[in-house]
């Protein structure tokens, strides 16, 4: 399928933990399309994950960076430019973590210390990445920075907890930084709002299996897979989207514009008649 859409382009991919990660698939897709990349993740994820396997397949170097550390991100920008021999054309921000979700602390009983960590890791980190790139003048004109979001930013999915607020902030940062980076350097900043996807972060959300199947039944095209998402990221990195910025782009098989599907209605009717 590769068409060398990213031939000659260089980029940084955050967040490839294991082969299920959306970032993992995006790294493979970007390289198949001709890009040269640097892979990065938090130091603990580098120790526990499988990133070196991916690095071999992508012929890429790995640089550790905690996305909540400005010093780590400054170092990442400099080292990436040295390793790749120039500025970047794209960055994938594929980062999410909520200590409240991990510890099963409900939204109404939140620990504010955890809540602040959720926002720092899952949302402010996009601001930090953009700021570090801008400060280091690490992006070429018409470059593309893309974050990954979820529709809980617009509508309530109770199990998604404080990640919903983090995603709303993430999308807002993409708009705000996109404005400034666009005028300053013609750099684009967008988020992709992806279907539920079976990954470490996704499966950690309470009731994930149920809303994965619910979304599958609601969406006219079904859920978008991690591979589909990777291809959409590649398109956003490419020159075919050079005028797209400050957007939250739904990549969800039509879920976001569907009120209810006949499949869901039939399921509820069946459950009702089974009870009688
Ligand atoms: N899986 C889904 O259902 C789904 C749906 C919509 C959006 N998303 C979003 O997609 C993105 C990628 O998640 P995924 O589903 O591939 O899961 P994943 O668990 O494979 O990836 C999450 C990544 O975030 C990294 N991370 C956590 N804390 C970090 C830190 N401090 N610094 C740097 N990296 C850190 C992890 O190491 C991991 O690699 C996330 O933003 C997630 O919210 C996922």
Molecular structure report:
The chain has 11 helices and 7 strands. The protein is of the alpha/beta class and 276 residues long. Strands 3-2-1-4-5-6-7 form a 7-stranded parallel β-sheet, sandwiched between helices. It starts with 9 loop residues before the first strand and ends with a helix. Helix 1 links the parallel strand 1 (10-14) and strand 2. It has one domain (10-275): Rossmann fold, CATH 3.40.50.720. The mean pLDDT is 96. It binds nicotinamide-adenine-dinucleotide (NAD).
The CATH topology is what?
Answer: Rossmann fold
Strand order of the largest sheet: 3-2-1-4-5-6-7
Bound compounds, please? nicotinamide-adenine-dinucleotide
Quickly give the structural class.
alpha/beta
The averaged pLDDT comes out at 96
- CA gyration radius, whole angstroms: 19 Å
Can you tell me the residue ranges where pLDDT is under 50 for at least 5 consecutive residues? none
Q: How would you sum up the global shape?
A: globular
- Number of DSSP strands? 7
Highest-level CATH class: Alpha Beta
Level of helix content? 40-55%
Tell me the series of helices and strands, N- to C-terminal: EHEHHEHEHHEHEHHHEH
């Amino acid at each position: 399928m590769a068409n060398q859409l990213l031939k000659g382009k260089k980029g940084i991919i955050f967040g490839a933990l294991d082969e299920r990660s959306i970032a993992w698939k995006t790294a493979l897709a970007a390289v198949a399309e001709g890009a040269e990349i640097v892979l990065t993740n938090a130091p603990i994820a580098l120790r526990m994950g499988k990133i070196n396997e991916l690095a071999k397949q992508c012929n890429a170097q790995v640089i550790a960076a905690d996305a909540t550390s400005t010093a780590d991100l400054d170092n990442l920008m400099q080292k990436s430019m040295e390793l790749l021999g120039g500025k970047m054309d794209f960055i994938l921000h594929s980062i999410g973590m909520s200590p409240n979700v991990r510890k099963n602390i409900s939204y109404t009983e939140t620990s504010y210390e955890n809540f602040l960590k959720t926002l720092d890791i899952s949302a402010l980190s996009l601001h930090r990445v953009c700021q570090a790139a801008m400060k280091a003048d690490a992006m070429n004109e018409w470059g593309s920075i893309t974050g990954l979001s979820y529709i809980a930013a617009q509508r309530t999915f109770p199990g998604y907890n404080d990640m919903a607020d983090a995603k709303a902030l993430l999308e807002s940062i993409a708009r705000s930084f996109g404005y400034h980076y666009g005028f300053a350097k013609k750099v684009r900043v967008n988020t992709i709002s992806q279907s539920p996807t079976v990954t470490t972060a996704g499966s950690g959300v309470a009731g994930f299996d149920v809303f994965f199947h619910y979304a599958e039944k609601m969406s006219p095209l079904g859920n978008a897979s991690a591979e589909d998402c990777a291809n959409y990221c590649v398109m956003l990195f490419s020159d075919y989207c050079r005028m797209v910025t400050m957007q939250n782009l739904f990549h969800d098989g039509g879920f976001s514009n569907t009120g209810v599907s006949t499949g869901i209605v039939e399921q509820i009717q069946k459950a009702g008649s089974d009870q009688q």
